[in-house]
Design a protein that fits this description.
The complex is a heterodimer. Chain A is an all-alpha fold. Chain A has helices spanning 24-36, 42-76, 85-94, 101-108, and one strand at 10-11. Chain A has four helices and one strand. Chain A starts with 9 loop residues before the first strand and ends in a 5-residue tail after the last helix. The model of chain B is unreliable at 90-105 (pLDDT under 50). Classes of the chains: A mainly alpha, B mainly alpha. At the A-B interface, strand 1 and helix 1 of A face helix 2, helix 3, helix 4, helix 7 and helix 8 of B.
Chain lengths: 113, 186
């Protein structure tokens, strides 16, 4: 056990923390609080959060519309044969039909070829 | 009347920044000196403090005994300093203040003397154990009493006295003429 009656007196340690920095506490505490709140990124994070808040219902609406549209397409059945040149050509190929010049002109009319 | 730590912790947990700031300000010097005792230089001690305060804010809900907030915060400071892996080592570079004085041509004999004393103190403190450093700095630099040190550093009062006595003896041996003695208050 140390004999405290013989304890050496205190040593002047003030030089260890010189020069005094009056703003040290303010600076460090403010920086820590800013960091714990997200610091300079805070407004951006808030914006992202609010954007994601809007995005969720919009995505839900889009998904609902997609389901309704898919249902409608299925209910209406396969599309009518198209009058587009590509569809006409496909039909001729399937039926091994050799088109006449007149049929070709009618099929490609409007393309200006 | 000074608001208790427990009351401030309760308010801080509800998101009151002012209460949080009061708590951090109340224990800033102790936290800083403990960090300084662990890492040995001002710049690192400030970084450790800032990191520890961020952890403290993020983990405020984990403070099991709000009456002992100070002890809890200082434990975070110690862990942060430990993780940093910068246990008291004297930097090869000069302190920032020295550079500023040199640049501005303000380096007087008094400044040189002060820096010599400071370097001697840093070197001598580096030879103490981390517990001795913490007690010596809190007691002799910050003016804490053994009862306060015991509570915040999780020591008994007699152990705090012992660390102080052993630390001072070692410092006197190491510092010799540099050791300016002051009257004791405790």
């Amino acid at each position: 056990m140390t004999d405290h009656s013989m304890e050496p007196g205190r040593i002047d340690l003030r030089a260890i923390d010189e020069p005094e920095d009056a703003l040290q506490a303010d600076r460090i505490i403010a920086a820590a609080l800013a960091r714990s709140r997200g610091g300079p990124n805070q407004p951006r994070l808030d914006a992202l959060e609010s954007l994601s808040g809007y995005l969720r219902p919009m995505l839900a609406i889009a998904a609902s519309l997609l389901i309704v549209a898919t249902g409608t397409v299925i209910a209406l059945g396969p599309p009518e044969p198209s009058s587009q040149p590509v569809a006409i050509l496909a039909e001729w190929t399937e039926s091994q039909h050799v088109p006449t010049n007149g049929e070709l002109l009618v099929a490609f009319q409007g393309y200006g070829r | 009347m000074t608001e208790s730590d427990a009351s401030l912790v309760a308010r801080a947990r509800l998101g009151e920044t002012a209460a949080l700031e009061t708590l951090l300000r109340r224990y800033f010097r102790a936290a800083y000196l403990v960090a300084l005792a662990r890492v040995g230089n001002r710049a690192d001690a400030e970084d450790v403090c800032q990191d520890a305060f961020v952890r403290c804010v993020e983990r405020m809900q984990d403070c099991r005994n709000p009456d002992s907030f100070g002890a809890w915060l200082i434990e975070i400071v110690r862990n942060t300093a430990h993780n940093r892996g910068d246990y008291l080592r004297v930097r090869a570079t000069e302190p920032i203040a020295s550079h500023l004085e040199l640049q501005s041509g303000m380096r007087t004999d008094a400044a040189v003397e002060r820096h010599e004393l400071r370097d001697q103190l840093v070197c001598a403190l580096a030879r103490l154990t981390s517990s001795q450093r913490e007690v010596v700095l809190l007691h002799d630099l910050e003016g804490w009493r053994h009862a306060e040190i015991a509570v915040h550093l999780d020591l008994s009062v007699s152990m705090s006295r012992r660390h102080l006595s052993d630390g001072r003896k070692k410092l006197r041996e190491l510092l010799g003429d540099y050791a300016t003695l002051e009257p004791d208050h405790d």
